[in-house]
Write the structure tokens for this entry.
Amino acid sequence: MYSRRSRYENRTGGPGKAFELSASSGLKPHLCSVFATTMTDEQQQLQQVARALRDRCRSVLLATVSPAGEPEISYAPFILDDDEAICIYVSELAAHTRNLLANPRASLMFIQPEAEARNLFARERLVLQCRAGEVRGKEADRLLERMESAFGETVALLRSLPDFHLFRFQVEKGSYVRGFGQAWVVQGNRLVIGELRKG
């Protein structure tokens, strides 16, 4: 079994990226240093726990909206790029792919398995509001090679099909929930923890 660190490195291609903040993390540049320098010890610990929840998962729940305004939910296997942006490889036959091509806004969720939850009304979860962008060219090739390493020969087969698209999601904001009354604001791909949500 992989350790949390080895699972993270498998998705990102190597260690040493976990604590860097940059414009590519999904935060505006002037906010990166602010959040990085103002997180308390508790918030830094929460950041690690939130990232551990994400890194335990191999697939992500994906909510999109159709051009007609109909909500759709699905899932997809994912990897992280070097800046911890979430990347998925999906077919035009899937409604969520067509939705993302028409409207790049999406909500992603990572959630604690039911079997691990002490209370099903208070499962640990990470909900992220994101903007998607399609990745092409050499960068797409590099990310798909990483995805093939993570998921095996199925990815090689999918790469031979003409209707697949590689999307990268930049986290704009979100919530990390540990239980009742324990929901924190999240910012950026690095899951920088902000204030405790009230109400």
Notes: The first strand starts at residue 59 and ends at 65.
